[in-house]
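Example record for the data management plan.
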Amino acid sequence: MRVLPTPTRLAVALLAAAALHGAPAAAADEPGWTAGPAAGRAATPRPYFYLAGAAGSVLEDRLTLANSGDRERTLTLRGADAYNTPDGALAVRPAGDGAAAAGAGAGAGAWISFGAATTVKVPPHTRAVVPFTVTVPPAAAPGDHPAAVVATEAGHEAAVRVHLRVGGPTLAALTVEDVAVHGSGGSAVIRYALVNRGNVALAPELAVRAEGRFGEVPGRAAHAVPVELLPGRRVELSEPWPGAPALDRVALTLTATAPGAAPATARASAWLLPGGTAARLGAGLLALGTLATAGLLLVRTRRTRRERPPEPPATAAAPAPEPELTGASR
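Corresponding structural encoding:
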């Protein structure tokens, strides 16, 4: 594992990947020190912390700091909330973030305490083991509360995932939303959003089914989505659609599943057109519509003229009577 060069965001996604591959610890960008769970009773190294307990309980574990360099290291320790970024990556709140501070709306990062050992000096070629506690509030909701333990030195940070579950009823619930298709053929991309509406982390899978104007077209079989979706989070994702037709109108159905959750579906329809075709087709349709409108107006004008009744001929005005010349006085 490594730390990002800035302390504002830590790549917990790297920690999750390490967990899948059995990596034992988080490491700094510059070699010299690592942070990870202290060895347990089992011989296999732990990739992350896993703690479970009832609301109101106090849980304990230990963090190992290993200094393999030739100089002393001074490390600062803290707890932090973990969350999904909009594109699905896992990250932790930076130090001083209001969401990570104790108080209203605080997450599980605020439950982690190192007591007086928030700053630890580790001599060269030495391994330090630092205990910490997780105090679960009495009113904590059941389910998963993602967090991390963060070690910092001179702007470099390393985070170790804390997978914390509070006892009680759990709910796995998933929805898929806002489906759209961009491009066509081999360059087609499907965009969609996944929302975790339950209280446990989810490992979703997605299947794509498509119907064209002349029947079913190749979609995508159910496959794992490279995201760990945390409770209450929404992520916006995209993936290639290699089987998309180059020219067709398709009705797309996406089905998202996750262990313990009911399948969720969303539908969308779209014209798939080759590159550049859309603009030319749009211009052609606009011109055709203009011609059709002009022709319709011309036909209506001619029809109106034919159906209008002829006007009666105008009668000549009667001449005014000339005065009678009789020579009689008036």
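Summary line stored alongside the record: The two ends are 132 Å apart (CA to CA).
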